[in-house]
Design brief:
The two termini are about 35 Å apart. The model has no long low-confidence stretch (mean pLDDT about 90). The protein has helices at about 140-145, 150-155, 175-195, 210-215, 230-240, 255-260, 260-270, 305-325, 345-360, 385-390, and strands at about 1-10, 15-20, 25-30, 45-50, 55-60, 70, 95-100, 110-115, 120, 125, 130-135, 160, 200-205, 220-225, 245-250, 275, 280-285, 290-295, 330-335, 365-370, 375-380. The protein is an alpha+beta fold.
Length: about 400
Protein backbone atom coordinates (compact mmCIF):
# COMPACT_ATOMS: atom_id res chain seq x y z
CA UNK A 1 0.00 0.00 0.00
CA UNK A 2 1.34 3.42 -1.01
CA UNK A 3 0.71 6.30 1.41
CA UNK A 4 1.11 8.78 -1.46
CA UNK A 5 -1.67 7.19 -3.54
CA UNK A 6 -5.33 8.12 -3.13
CA UNK A 7 -8.58 7.84 -5.05
CA UNK A 8 -10.74 10.97 -5.24
CA UNK A 9 -14.39 10.77 -6.32
CA UNK A 10 -15.99 14.14 -6.89
CA UNK A 11 -17.76 16.44 -9.34
CA UNK A 12 -15.65 18.25 -11.94
CA UNK A 13 -17.18 20.57 -14.52
CA UNK A 14 -20.63 19.26 -13.48
CA UNK A 15 -19.68 15.63 -14.18
CA UNK A 16 -19.01 12.96 -11.58
CA UNK A 17 -15.60 11.39 -12.03
CA UNK A 18 -13.00 9.33 -10.18
CA UNK A 19 -9.27 10.09 -10.15
CA UNK A 20 -6.40 7.87 -9.06
CA UNK A 21 -3.67 10.18 -7.77
CA UNK A 22 -0.07 9.10 -7.25
CA UNK A 23 2.14 11.70 -5.55
CA UNK A 24 -0.56 14.25 -6.38
CA UNK A 25 -0.64 13.54 -10.13
CA UNK A 26 -3.61 11.90 -11.87
CA UNK A 27 -2.59 8.57 -13.41
CA UNK A 28 -6.12 7.21 -14.06
CA UNK A 29 -9.44 8.95 -14.68
CA UNK A 30 -12.91 7.41 -15.01
CA UNK A 31 -16.10 9.36 -15.72
CA UNK A 32 -18.95 7.95 -13.64
CA UNK A 33 -21.73 7.88 -16.21
CA UNK A 34 -25.20 6.55 -15.53
CA UNK A 35 -25.14 2.80 -15.01
CA UNK A 36 -25.99 0.86 -18.14
CA UNK A 37 -28.23 -2.22 -18.20
CA UNK A 38 -25.58 -3.87 -20.36
CA UNK A 39 -22.36 -2.96 -18.60
CA UNK A 40 -19.32 -5.22 -18.77
CA UNK A 41 -19.96 -8.66 -17.29
CA UNK A 42 -23.74 -8.62 -17.78
CA UNK A 43 -25.10 -12.10 -18.61
CA UNK A 44 -28.19 -12.04 -20.81
CA UNK A 45 -30.17 -14.22 -23.21
CA UNK A 46 -29.37 -12.96 -26.71
CA UNK A 47 -30.95 -13.67 -30.08
CA UNK A 48 -28.88 -14.06 -33.26
CA UNK A 49 -29.89 -11.23 -35.53
CA UNK A 50 -27.39 -11.53 -38.40
CA UNK A 51 -24.75 -14.03 -39.49
CA UNK A 52 -21.29 -13.03 -40.78
CA UNK A 53 -20.44 -16.21 -42.63
CA UNK A 54 -17.11 -14.99 -44.03
CA UNK A 55 -15.66 -14.25 -40.60
CA UNK A 56 -17.33 -17.00 -38.56
CA UNK A 57 -19.19 -14.50 -36.41
CA UNK A 58 -22.63 -13.07 -35.81
CA UNK A 59 -24.48 -10.07 -34.39
CA UNK A 60 -26.90 -10.51 -31.51
CA UNK A 61 -29.81 -8.58 -30.09
CA UNK A 62 -29.63 -8.52 -26.29
CA UNK A 63 -32.17 -5.83 -25.51
CA UNK A 64 -31.11 -2.37 -26.68
CA UNK A 65 -30.67 -0.69 -30.06
CA UNK A 66 -27.12 -1.99 -30.61
CA UNK A 67 -25.84 -5.04 -32.48
CA UNK A 68 -23.44 -7.05 -30.31
CA UNK A 69 -20.63 -8.88 -32.11
CA UNK A 70 -19.77 -12.47 -31.16
CA UNK A 71 -17.09 -14.76 -32.59
CA UNK A 72 -18.62 -18.21 -33.10
CA UNK A 73 -16.54 -21.14 -31.78
CA UNK A 74 -15.70 -24.00 -34.13
CA UNK A 75 -17.53 -26.36 -31.81
CA UNK A 76 -20.98 -24.89 -31.04
CA UNK A 77 -21.51 -27.45 -28.25
CA UNK A 78 -19.70 -25.00 -25.95
CA UNK A 79 -22.55 -22.50 -26.44
CA UNK A 80 -25.41 -22.60 -23.95
CA UNK A 81 -28.55 -22.55 -26.13
CA UNK A 82 -31.68 -21.82 -24.10
CA UNK A 83 -33.80 -24.41 -25.92
CA UNK A 84 -31.71 -27.15 -24.32
CA UNK A 85 -31.05 -28.91 -27.65
CA UNK A 86 -27.72 -29.70 -29.29
CA UNK A 87 -26.89 -27.46 -32.25
CA UNK A 88 -24.46 -28.38 -35.01
CA UNK A 89 -24.24 -24.75 -36.14
CA UNK A 90 -25.41 -21.26 -35.24
CA UNK A 91 -28.18 -19.70 -37.30
CA UNK A 92 -30.44 -16.61 -37.21
CA UNK A 93 -33.05 -16.53 -34.42
CA UNK A 94 -31.07 -18.93 -32.20
CA UNK A 95 -31.23 -17.90 -28.55
CA UNK A 96 -28.20 -18.34 -26.31
CA UNK A 97 -26.60 -17.24 -23.07
CA UNK A 98 -23.97 -14.54 -23.63
CA UNK A 99 -21.91 -12.14 -21.54
CA UNK A 100 -20.94 -8.55 -22.43
CA UNK A 101 -17.15 -8.59 -22.87
CA UNK A 102 -16.33 -5.14 -24.28
CA UNK A 103 -17.98 -1.77 -24.76
CA UNK A 104 -18.59 0.01 -28.02
CA UNK A 105 -15.31 1.79 -28.82
CA UNK A 106 -15.04 4.28 -31.68
CA UNK A 107 -16.19 2.41 -34.82
CA UNK A 108 -15.97 -1.02 -33.16
CA UNK A 109 -19.24 -2.66 -32.10
CA UNK A 110 -19.71 -3.84 -28.52
CA UNK A 111 -18.90 -7.53 -28.03
CA UNK A 112 -20.37 -10.49 -26.21
CA UNK A 113 -18.93 -13.94 -25.58
CA UNK A 114 -20.46 -17.37 -25.06
CA UNK A 115 -17.83 -18.09 -22.38
CA UNK A 116 -19.62 -17.14 -19.19
CA UNK A 117 -17.38 -16.19 -16.26
CA UNK A 118 -18.25 -15.07 -12.74
CA UNK A 119 -15.85 -13.21 -10.50
CA UNK A 120 -15.46 -12.36 -6.86
CA UNK A 121 -12.85 -10.50 -4.87
CA UNK A 122 -10.45 -13.46 -4.80
CA UNK A 123 -11.39 -15.78 -7.68
CA UNK A 124 -12.86 -16.09 -11.18
CA UNK A 125 -14.63 -19.19 -12.51
CA UNK A 126 -15.48 -20.01 -16.12
CA UNK A 127 -15.58 -22.75 -18.76
CA UNK A 128 -12.88 -25.41 -18.62
CA UNK A 129 -11.09 -27.22 -15.83
CA UNK A 130 -8.07 -26.61 -13.63
CA UNK A 131 -6.48 -23.74 -11.71
CA UNK A 132 -4.34 -20.82 -12.81
CA UNK A 133 -3.12 -17.63 -11.19
CA UNK A 134 -3.36 -13.97 -12.09
CA UNK A 135 -0.36 -12.90 -14.16
CA UNK A 136 0.36 -10.24 -11.54
CA UNK A 137 1.07 -12.85 -8.85
CA UNK A 138 4.84 -13.36 -8.94
CA UNK A 139 6.53 -16.80 -8.91
CA UNK A 140 7.74 -16.37 -5.31
CA UNK A 141 4.24 -15.51 -4.04
CA UNK A 142 2.71 -18.31 -6.10
CA UNK A 143 4.96 -20.90 -4.42
CA UNK A 144 3.78 -19.81 -0.97
CA UNK A 145 0.05 -19.97 -1.75
CA UNK A 146 -1.61 -22.98 -0.16
CA UNK A 147 -4.81 -23.56 -2.10
CA UNK A 148 -7.98 -24.34 -0.11
CA UNK A 149 -8.86 -27.97 0.52
CA UNK A 150 -12.02 -27.79 -1.63
CA UNK A 151 -10.20 -26.49 -4.72
CA UNK A 152 -10.25 -29.82 -6.60
CA UNK A 153 -14.02 -30.09 -6.24
CA UNK A 154 -14.45 -26.86 -8.15
CA UNK A 155 -11.45 -27.28 -10.50
CA UNK A 156 -13.11 -30.41 -11.92
CA UNK A 157 -16.11 -28.28 -12.97
CA UNK A 158 -14.59 -24.90 -13.88
CA UNK A 159 -11.39 -23.19 -14.87
CA UNK A 160 -10.47 -21.21 -11.75
CA UNK A 161 -8.28 -18.11 -11.74
CA UNK A 162 -6.88 -17.06 -8.37
CA UNK A 163 -6.96 -13.25 -8.44
CA UNK A 164 -4.13 -10.91 -7.46
CA UNK A 165 -5.64 -9.88 -4.12
CA UNK A 166 -5.63 -13.51 -2.93
CA UNK A 167 -1.82 -13.45 -3.07
CA UNK A 168 -1.70 -11.31 0.08
CA UNK A 169 -3.84 -13.69 2.17
CA UNK A 170 -2.26 -15.75 4.93
CA UNK A 171 -5.41 -17.86 5.22
CA UNK A 172 -7.17 -19.21 2.10
CA UNK A 173 -10.53 -19.45 3.88
CA UNK A 174 -11.95 -16.40 2.02
CA UNK A 175 -10.97 -18.01 -1.33
CA UNK A 176 -12.80 -21.22 -0.37
CA UNK A 177 -15.88 -19.18 0.60
CA UNK A 178 -15.76 -17.26 -2.70
CA UNK A 179 -15.52 -20.48 -4.73
CA UNK A 180 -18.51 -22.03 -2.97
CA UNK A 181 -20.58 -18.90 -3.57
CA UNK A 182 -19.52 -18.60 -7.22
CA UNK A 183 -20.35 -22.27 -7.80
CA UNK A 184 -23.85 -21.73 -6.41
CA UNK A 185 -24.35 -18.60 -8.53
CA UNK A 186 -23.12 -20.33 -11.70
CA UNK A 187 -25.38 -23.36 -11.21
CA UNK A 188 -28.37 -21.10 -10.55
CA UNK A 189 -27.61 -19.00 -13.63
CA UNK A 190 -27.48 -22.03 -15.96
CA UNK A 191 -30.70 -23.40 -14.48
CA UNK A 192 -32.56 -20.11 -14.92
CA UNK A 193 -31.32 -19.79 -18.51
CA UNK A 194 -33.29 -22.89 -19.54
CA UNK A 195 -36.59 -21.13 -18.96
CA UNK A 196 -35.62 -17.52 -19.63
CA UNK A 197 -36.96 -15.50 -22.56
CA UNK A 198 -34.80 -13.55 -24.98
CA UNK A 199 -33.34 -10.31 -23.57
CA UNK A 200 -33.65 -11.60 -19.99
CA UNK A 201 -30.79 -10.33 -17.81
CA UNK A 202 -29.64 -13.15 -15.54
CA UNK A 203 -26.57 -11.61 -13.92
CA UNK A 204 -25.06 -8.17 -13.43
CA UNK A 205 -21.61 -7.53 -12.07
CA UNK A 206 -21.08 -4.60 -9.73
CA UNK A 207 -21.02 -1.36 -11.66
CA UNK A 208 -20.26 2.29 -11.04
CA UNK A 209 -18.31 3.07 -7.88
CA UNK A 210 -18.24 -0.55 -6.60
CA UNK A 211 -16.70 -1.88 -9.80
CA UNK A 212 -14.22 0.99 -9.88
CA UNK A 213 -13.08 0.30 -6.31
CA UNK A 214 -12.68 -3.41 -7.09
CA UNK A 215 -10.46 -2.49 -10.04
CA UNK A 216 -8.43 0.39 -8.60
CA UNK A 217 -7.78 -0.67 -5.00
CA UNK A 218 -5.35 -3.32 -6.24
CA UNK A 219 -2.99 -0.51 -7.28
CA UNK A 220 -2.27 0.28 -3.63
CA UNK A 221 -4.17 3.46 -2.71
CA UNK A 222 -4.19 4.10 1.04
CA UNK A 223 -7.12 6.54 1.04
CA UNK A 224 -10.40 7.18 -0.76
CA UNK A 225 -11.76 10.73 -0.67
CA UNK A 226 -15.23 11.85 -1.75
CA UNK A 227 -17.48 14.86 -1.24
CA UNK A 228 -20.51 13.07 -2.74
CA UNK A 229 -22.58 12.03 0.27
CA UNK A 230 -24.65 9.35 -1.46
CA UNK A 231 -21.50 7.27 -2.03
CA UNK A 232 -20.57 7.18 1.67
CA UNK A 233 -22.37 3.94 2.64
CA UNK A 234 -21.35 2.08 -0.53
CA UNK A 235 -17.71 3.08 -0.15
CA UNK A 236 -17.75 2.27 3.56
CA UNK A 237 -18.88 -1.29 2.81
CA UNK A 238 -16.32 -1.70 0.01
CA UNK A 239 -13.40 -0.48 2.13
CA UNK A 240 -14.26 -2.39 5.29
CA UNK A 241 -11.44 -4.77 6.29
CA UNK A 242 -9.21 -3.55 3.43
CA UNK A 243 -7.06 -1.19 5.49
CA UNK A 244 -8.01 1.76 3.30
CA UNK A 245 -9.12 5.00 4.93
CA UNK A 246 -12.35 6.67 3.78
CA UNK A 247 -12.37 10.46 4.02
CA UNK A 248 -15.64 12.34 3.58
CA UNK A 249 -14.54 15.75 2.34
CA UNK A 250 -16.82 18.61 3.37
CA UNK A 251 -15.87 22.18 2.51
CA UNK A 252 -18.48 23.98 0.38
CA UNK A 253 -16.18 26.97 -0.09
CA UNK A 254 -13.26 24.90 -1.40
CA UNK A 255 -14.56 21.69 -3.06
CA UNK A 256 -12.45 18.57 -3.56
CA UNK A 257 -11.91 19.30 -7.26
CA UNK A 258 -10.11 22.52 -6.25
CA UNK A 259 -8.26 20.96 -3.34
CA UNK A 260 -6.72 18.24 -5.53
CA UNK A 261 -6.46 20.36 -8.73
CA UNK A 262 -8.69 17.98 -10.66
CA UNK A 263 -9.95 20.51 -13.18
CA UNK A 264 -6.36 20.86 -14.38
CA UNK A 265 -6.09 17.05 -14.47
CA UNK A 266 -9.11 16.84 -16.79
CA UNK A 267 -7.86 19.72 -18.95
CA UNK A 268 -4.47 18.03 -19.35
CA UNK A 269 -6.02 14.61 -20.12
CA UNK A 270 -8.09 16.15 -22.91
CA UNK A 271 -5.36 18.43 -24.28
CA UNK A 272 -3.81 17.78 -27.67
CA UNK A 273 -0.35 18.87 -26.52
CA UNK A 274 1.60 17.42 -23.56
CA UNK A 275 4.81 19.12 -22.41
CA UNK A 276 7.77 17.00 -21.31
CA UNK A 277 9.77 17.75 -18.16
CA UNK A 278 13.11 17.69 -19.97
CA UNK A 279 11.99 19.91 -22.86
CA UNK A 280 9.98 19.20 -25.97
CA UNK A 281 6.37 18.06 -26.14
CA UNK A 282 3.99 15.40 -27.46
CA UNK A 283 1.16 16.01 -29.90
CA UNK A 284 -1.56 13.40 -29.44
CA UNK A 285 -4.14 12.97 -32.21
CA UNK A 286 -6.88 10.45 -31.46
CA UNK A 287 -8.71 9.38 -34.62
CA UNK A 288 -11.49 6.88 -35.24
CA UNK A 289 -9.22 3.95 -36.07
CA UNK A 290 -5.80 4.87 -34.61
CA UNK A 291 -3.92 7.27 -32.37
CA UNK A 292 -0.92 9.19 -33.73
CA UNK A 293 1.65 10.60 -31.29
CA UNK A 294 4.35 12.99 -32.50
CA UNK A 295 7.42 13.72 -30.37
CA UNK A 296 8.60 17.29 -30.94
CA UNK A 297 11.82 18.88 -29.72
CA UNK A 298 10.21 22.30 -29.46
CA UNK A 299 13.43 23.85 -30.86
CA UNK A 300 15.14 23.14 -27.52
CA UNK A 301 18.00 21.11 -28.93
CA UNK A 302 21.36 22.67 -28.14
CA UNK A 303 24.85 21.22 -28.55
CA UNK A 304 25.00 17.53 -29.46
CA UNK A 305 21.81 17.04 -31.49
CA UNK A 306 21.92 13.23 -31.36
CA UNK A 307 22.37 13.11 -27.58
CA UNK A 308 19.64 15.70 -26.90
CA UNK A 309 17.22 13.97 -29.28
CA UNK A 310 17.94 10.67 -27.54
CA UNK A 311 17.24 12.18 -24.09
CA UNK A 312 13.99 13.82 -25.23
CA UNK A 313 12.87 10.54 -26.80
CA UNK A 314 13.55 8.63 -23.57
CA UNK A 315 11.52 11.19 -21.63
CA UNK A 316 8.78 10.92 -24.25
CA UNK A 317 8.67 7.10 -24.07
CA UNK A 318 7.92 7.23 -20.34
CA UNK A 319 5.32 9.99 -20.74
CA UNK A 320 3.62 8.19 -23.64
CA UNK A 321 3.12 5.07 -21.52
CA UNK A 322 1.61 7.27 -18.80
CA UNK A 323 -0.70 9.04 -21.23
CA UNK A 324 -1.97 5.74 -22.68
CA UNK A 325 -3.11 4.70 -19.20
CA UNK A 326 -4.38 8.13 -18.19
CA UNK A 327 -6.42 8.66 -21.37
CA UNK A 328 -7.24 4.94 -21.81
CA UNK A 329 -6.14 5.09 -25.44
CA UNK A 330 -6.70 1.79 -27.23
CA UNK A 331 -6.30 0.17 -30.63
CA UNK A 332 -3.42 0.97 -32.98
CA UNK A 333 -0.93 3.60 -31.78
CA UNK A 334 1.73 5.09 -34.07
CA UNK A 335 4.59 7.06 -32.50
CA UNK A 336 6.87 9.38 -34.45
CA UNK A 337 9.96 9.86 -32.27
CA UNK A 338 12.67 12.39 -33.13
CA UNK A 339 15.02 10.77 -35.68
CA UNK A 340 18.09 9.07 -34.21
CA UNK A 341 21.15 8.23 -36.30
CA UNK A 342 22.84 5.95 -33.77
CA UNK A 343 21.32 2.39 -34.06
CA UNK A 344 22.32 1.74 -30.45
CA UNK A 345 20.26 4.71 -29.28
CA UNK A 346 17.27 3.48 -31.28
CA UNK A 347 17.54 -0.04 -29.85
CA UNK A 348 17.78 1.36 -26.34
CA UNK A 349 14.74 3.62 -26.91
CA UNK A 350 12.64 0.67 -28.10
CA UNK A 351 13.76 -1.41 -25.11
CA UNK A 352 12.84 1.39 -22.69
CA UNK A 353 9.43 1.90 -24.35
CA UNK A 354 8.69 -1.82 -24.22
CA UNK A 355 9.62 -1.85 -20.54
CA UNK A 356 7.25 1.03 -19.78
CA UNK A 357 4.23 -0.39 -21.62
CA UNK A 358 4.82 -3.83 -20.08
CA UNK A 359 3.80 -2.30 -16.72
CA UNK A 360 0.37 -1.34 -18.08
CA UNK A 361 -2.50 -3.15 -16.35
CA UNK A 362 -4.25 -3.28 -19.76
CA UNK A 363 -2.57 -5.48 -22.38
CA UNK A 364 -0.27 -3.21 -24.40
CA UNK A 365 2.40 -4.55 -26.73
CA UNK A 366 5.12 -3.33 -29.05
CA UNK A 367 4.54 -4.42 -32.66
CA UNK A 368 7.34 -3.12 -34.89
CA UNK A 369 8.99 -0.16 -36.58
CA UNK A 370 7.20 0.68 -39.83
CA UNK A 371 8.95 1.39 -43.12
CA UNK A 372 8.62 5.11 -42.38
CA UNK A 373 10.35 4.77 -39.03
CA UNK A 374 7.18 4.99 -36.91
CA UNK A 375 6.89 2.76 -33.85
CA UNK A 376 3.65 0.81 -33.70
CA UNK A 377 1.94 -0.31 -30.49
CA UNK A 378 -1.42 -1.91 -29.86
CA UNK A 379 -3.44 -1.58 -26.66
CA UNK A 380 -6.42 -3.75 -25.83
CA UNK A 381 -9.83 -2.12 -26.18
CA UNK A 382 -11.64 -2.46 -22.87
CA UNK A 383 -13.35 0.84 -22.13
CA UNK A 384 -13.88 4.10 -23.93
CA UNK A 385 -11.08 6.67 -23.85
CA UNK A 386 -11.41 9.59 -21.45
CA UNK A 387 -12.26 11.91 -24.36
CA UNK A 388 -15.11 9.58 -25.46
CA UNK A 389 -16.34 9.25 -21.86
CA UNK A 390 -16.30 13.03 -21.48
CA UNK A 391 -18.28 13.59 -24.68
CA UNK A 392 -20.80 10.85 -23.84
CA UNK A 393 -21.52 12.40 -20.43
CA UNK A 394 -22.05 15.87 -21.87
Amino acid sequence: MNENDRIVITTVYERRAAFYLSDGDAVRIQVLADESSFSLGTVVVGRVRKMLESSGACFLDIGDDKDYFMQIPRDPSSIIFTDGREHVCVKPEDQMLVQVSSEEVKLKAPCVTHKITLRSRYAVIGPGKGVSFSGKIGPATKKNIILPANINTFASKYHIIIRTEAGSLSDMGPVADDLARLDEEYSSLIQRASCASVRSILHRESTGVSALMDEWLKFGASEVVTDIGEYADELGQMLKNRGVNLKLYADPDFPACKMYKLESAIDNALARRVYLHGGGFLVIEQGETLCAIDVNSGHRIRGDKEEMSYRINLDAAEEISRQLRLRNISGMILIDFINLKDPGHMDDLIAKLRGHVRKDDVQCRYVDVTGLGLIELTRKRVRKSISEQWKASN
